[in-house]
Amino acid sequence: MGLINSADSPPPPPPPPPGRRWITLSLAEQRAYVMRLLDALEVTDRDKRLKVARAILYLAQGVFAECDSDTDVIRWSRHNVFLLYDMGIFTALLELLSMEMDNNQACSSAVRKPAISLADSTELRVLLSVMYLMVETIRLQTEDDQPDWTTAREAFRTELGSPLYNGEPFALLLFTMVTKFCSMNAPHFPMKKVLLLLWKTVLFTMGGFEELQEMKVRGRERLSLPPLPEDSIKVVRSMRAASPPASAMELIEQQQQAKRGRRSRRPLVKQDSLDTYNERDPFKNDDEDDSEDADGNLESEVDPLDRDVIIQPPPPPPPLRPPTDRASLPKGLPWAPKVREKDIEHFLEISRNKFIGFTLGSDTETLVGLPRPIHESVKTLKQHKYVSIAEMQIKKEEELQQCPMTLGEEDVEETPTEVLYLGMLPNLSQYVIALLKLLLAAAPTSKAKTDSINILADVLPEEMPITVLQSMKLGIDVNRHKEIIVKAISALLLLLLKHFKLNHIYQFEIVSQHLVFANCIPLILKFFNQNIMSYISAKNSICVLDFPHCVVHEMPELTAESLEAGDSNQFCWRNLFSCINLLRILNKLTKWKHSRTMMLVVFKSAPILKRALKVKQAMMQLYVLKLLKIQTKYLGRQWRKSNMKTMSAIYQKVRHRLNDDWAYGNDIDARPWDFQAEECALRESIEKFNSRRYDKNQNGEFAPVDNCLQSVLGQRVELPDDFQYSYEMWLEREVFSQPIQWEGLLERN
Questions:
Q1: What are phi and psi of 141, to 5 degrees?
Q2: Among residues 528, 393, 538, which one has the least CA distance to residue 480?
Q3: 689 and which of 334, 359, 506, 646 could share a cystine (Cβ 3.0–4.6 Å)?
Q4: What is the mean pLDDT of the chain?
Q5: Which letter does DSSP use for residue 725 in this model?
Q6: Phi then psi for 262, rounded to 5 degrees?
Q7: CA distances from 379 to 339, 342, 347, 747 (A)
Q8: Cis ω on the peptide bond leading into residue 461 (within 30° of 0)?
Q9: Cα-Cα-Cα-Cα dihedral of 423, 425, 431, 433, to 10°?
Q10: 625: which residues sit within 8 A by CB, 6+ positions away?
Q11: Number of Cβ atoms within 10 Å of the Cβ of 254
Q12: What Pfam families is this protein classified in (predicted)?
């Protein structure tokens, strides 16, 4: 269940019913006790409410004082969470959360304070902790789940994704908390807990990557498109990491050490261990266990409010197989090549101009007059043609714009993604800017500024540490706190982009454009402009404070040496997860966008990304290589010549577009870079989409006109209150002083 903040330890357990232990009570007695707690939540005394909320938190954490092992705590936590949900605790907590959000006295008090600490957000942290435990515990499925738990899970998912809370989904309430915090109106909000709860809520209601893949398959079937050429999740999991090319300094250092007769130091020791634990060996059988799921799927990285499910350490690497096993496997590129319809049209346009002297527009069927090799080329291109769901959505949108009366209104399915987009649309730019502000404040490369937001409000104690040991613990807590914020924001943004893109391409485009305009591209590059190996291998955790270990077992004495040693893991899953998410977001923003690709070139991203290749992990390397591939043609021949190992890795790992001239750059002069024109054209398409789909007053000009004089005069017209005072002036100006040509009116009739 994760690391407990050393300044935010679990509350002391409340007394059970007189003379009884919770685990010995019958289900009816437990329900009766929870009902009494629910009634006590409605008292007006703030201290009593907080005491009851802590009792509920203790139940959600698994009544650890009555358990003998970590497994028992987790088992009772699941039992209690489903019981709490069944008794309506979540709705009651939501009302209390809304009250705390609207508590103007607490907000104004926090604004005036020179330094905000944990004490300013006690109630909020307790409420958010319980809600987080409920969302995350119910979201995760286990083999021993009871049948009614499955029903409760689906009901809770529907409840969270529907506009049931004041006409808006629960995630929108959390987005409002984020914007209030970033606008300095509520600086005491515990942002780490809010962001984690927001991420898990979106993940629960909209689905993770596995669900996304299934939804994509179903969407292609509905549109009568051919199936996907491969399962991208499985392909990435089966990839092996490439050894990054050694830098000049490393080569010189190795030569000098070899001359001294010592064993050459290996600068990538952490990479080797990372490779061992992180990547799936492609020579395993498909039914063997895979330890790379935690970075390949958002769902499998469990981080309860500070980590509410124990993640077992990865198993030791299997022994090496004999080389004979490897030789028998088929070789080839991991991805099937793809070709867009635009690529075929462009190829035929060039060929027709060359051999015939004129073009036929978008006609890709007529090949008259073209030589035989061109026929074969077109046949090969069509064999690998890929039509995406986004292309179909754009085509349908153009038809709806051109024929609004003929095609009628679009039937929009009210999915959780659609409901969330509709709720976010009015304040979308504020939400995006707030998330990027928090990401910037939590980035390890950011320098503290006096005007920046304080994200440490829910980690700093009231009294600052006075001993070295306390200072070290607080330093670890602060670093870990920032890492969790980066992890939550990166996962949330990636989920939103992927779900909006599947729901409708223009929903994805508007979020992408807000991210680009808010300087997300240079922000992510700034994040990677650090010693990425140190970040991946950071040890900002204290094993003995892992929950539930810290409350079930005896707490050993902490020393400065034990804190400095850290845990036994040679890399940090959390930071690796964040890096992969940020790279994927950058890929999403720049894919097929020429002007944004040029921003990568202008910001000199190539050396930054190339340093990230030192992390010997297949999934991370794949997305770094994708970002390098789209800009290689603009980096010049000399760069390509001196980075042939990187070029070779791109060829081996990244999907090929058959007529993409990425490795040579012969057509770069033909494409001018006009950032403003491209973004304005995209914004125009987005605004037309939003106006047609969500603006209910847009068809006013097509409304029927009432031509009956009696019915028009009989309509009741709402007039302003001050109209009666100026009625005579209005008559004089609009009626008596205007000459009326009665003859003309009679002639028209």
A1: -95, 140
A2: 538
A3: 506
A4: 83
A5: G
A6: -95, 160
A7: 12, 15, 12, 70
A8: no
A9: 180
A10: 613, 646, 649, 650, 653, 654
A11: 15
A12: DUF3402, N1221
- Dist. CA 323–CA 376, nearest whole Å: 40
For 423, residues 6+ apart whose C-beta sits below 8 A from its C-beta are 163, 168, 169, 172
> And the tokens for 454?
């304080």
Whole-number Cα distances in Å, 81 to 73, 304, 551, 565: 12, 14, 19, 36
Task: Select from 30, 1, 2, 4 the least CA-distant residue to 16.
Answer: 30
> Whose structure tokens read 């080839």?
332
Q: What are the structure tokens assigned to 385, written together? A: 């043609």
Q: How far is CA 328 from the centre of its chain?
A: 40
How far apart are alpha carbons 511 and 682 in whole angstroms?
A: 12
Q: Supply the pLDDT for residue 535.
A: 95
Residue 55, CA distances (Å) to 14, 127, 342 in order: 6, 11, 62
| Tokens describing residue 482 | 């920032």
| Structure token pair of residue 739 | 């000459």
Residue 42 carries which side chain, given as an amino acid letter? E
Which stretch of DSSP H or E encloses residue 2?
A: strand 2-3
- Reported residue count of the chain is 749
Q: What is the spatial distance between Cα 423 and Cα 420, in angstroms, rounded to a whole number?
A: 5
Q: At what angle do helices 122-139 and 89-101 cross, to 10 degrees?
A: 140
pLDDT recorded at residue 462: 83
Cβ neighbours of 601 (radius 10 Å): 16
**What is the predicted pLDDT for the residue at 260?**
63
Rounded Cα distance, 599 and 586, in Å: 11
The residue assigned the tokens 């809304």 is 98
Alpha-carbon gap, residue 343 to 333, rounded angstroms = 21
pLDDT tens per residue, range 510-526? 999 999 999 999 999 99
Taking the model in full, what pTM does it have? 0.82
Cβ atoms of 49 and 100 within 8 Å: the answer is: no
What is the distance between the alpha carbons of residues 609 and 244, in angstroms, rounded to a whole number? 12
Count of alpha carbons within 13 angstroms of residue 309, beta-carbon side: 19
Name beta bridge partners: 2: 547
Q: Which helix (H) or strand (E) holds 343?
A: helix 341-355
Low-confidence ranges of the chain (pLDDT < 50): 1-7, 9, 12, 263-330, 669-670
